[in-house]
Amino acid sequence: MTVTPNAPTTKNTPVPASEADLAIARRVLDIEASALRELADSLDGDFCKAIDLIEGLKGRLVITGMGKSGHIAKKIAATFASTGTPSFFVHPAEASHGDLGMIGKDDAVLALSNSGETPELSDIIAFTRRFNVPLIGMTRKPESSLAKQSDCPLVLPASPEACPNKQAPTTSTTAMLALADALAVTLMERRGFSADDFRTFHPGGKLGQRLLHVHDVMHGADSLPLIARDALMSEALVTMTGHSFGCVGVLGDAGELIGIVTDGDLRRHMADNLVAMKVGDVMTAGPKVTHADALAVEALAIMNDRSITALFVLDAAGIPVGLVHIHDLLRSGVA
Predict the structure, then answer these.
(1) Which among 188, 137, 159 is positioned nearest to 41, based on CA atoms?
(2) CB of 137 closer than 8 Å to CB of 146
(3) Element (H, E) at 313
(4) What is the pLDDT of residue 46?
(5) What is the pLDDT of residues 310-334, one digit of tens each?
(6) Range 197-223 average pLDDT
(7) What's the chain's Rg over C-alpha atoms?
(8) Is the pLDDT of residue 272 over 90?
(9) Which residues contact 107 (CB under 8 A, 6 or more apart)?
(10) Residue 16, helix vs strand vs coil
(11) Are the C-beta atoms of residues 199 and 208 closer than 8 Å to each other?
């Protein structure tokens, strides 16, 4: 008997849709989306009090939770830490065995518990009450121990869980994560947290690369290929060759950049007596430039738009202070 192998599948092969499965998925998303809208409508003065408390901290925001709430708490701690609020996660069970010492008198605690009665949180709650450490409790139960003990209770709407048995933490953990995001972003905007600040906490990866500035990757003023407009092209060729940027900047009487000579300009004048010509007669006037505080991705966009490989970097007076080359952007991961 001949067995015909199954046709190989590829990532471009359409996958038949199961309407039943899609209906379940949409129901889950609708339930959680509805809960987030209800959460947004429920925000009140306690949210603003929490913002004031966190903004005024001299220490760190310690975030804790058990089980699924603990997993959410870890992500929340990472979000706060990366957006200007020093923060870290403490496991409530480990806190009872020595990690309470990680919580200082200038810190505050954000505790997550769906029921507000999580036994493992009891020692942390007691510690905050004993040593006057501010406590923010995030829970769905306004009458719970956590809510009552909190200096600032953040009560989530009692929206149903998305799972069919209404048991598995789904809607509740989504709401916790979203509410914490709202806290973090509100704090960012209050503090004027900028892209520069963001890069400070995200120096690695693609995000850090996209937030690089031109001054982070440019060549400095002491390595620039520059020449006066009245110089001969024979001198310009020596300068261009010695710097390996494929171009030379042309300076005016005040040292300002007035033009550029590139490989393209050389090719256009090959039929002429190029070496005997004045630089000013060969240059391209008014070249595209950038400034040191521009994002490197903005410099890359100019290069791509104009099909060029280098940009001179000018100060406010038009004086060249640097040069950024496409190779620099490639090495830094921007391009």
Answers:
(1) 159
(2) yes
(3) strand 310-314
(4) 94
(5) 999 999 999 999 999 988 888 777 7
(6) 70
(7) 30
(8) no
(9) 57, 59, 60, 61, 62, 133
(10) coil
(11) yes
